[in-house]
Amino acid sequence: MDVFLEKLTLTRKEAAELLGISTATVTQWGLEGRLKAYRVSSRPKSPYLFTREDCQAALLAVEVEPTKLRDKERKVEAEVAFTRSQKEVNEKLRRMLNMPEKE
Hints:
Elements: H1 12-19, H2 23-32, E1 38-39, E2 48-49, H3 52-61, H4 67-96
Antiparallel strand pairs: 1-2
């Protein structure tokens, strides 16, 4: 009978791969308290380990900004409105200066 035992802890590199972020970001999240980290031993240079559960919790806690697409839509709408008003201004100037209409 094959028994698959999932690794209980992850290295910084494994945690970064699981989260889809850099190892530097894993370190930063650990320092900020956004990702719980466990020392292998009490020695100062001892590496940190992470659990899958803590990684998943950190990922769920990340705020996502769904408004970015909406901001792009607003920008396009503003550009269209600007272009429309620019055309109106151009037409008024042509009439004021008695210039022929542009075709």
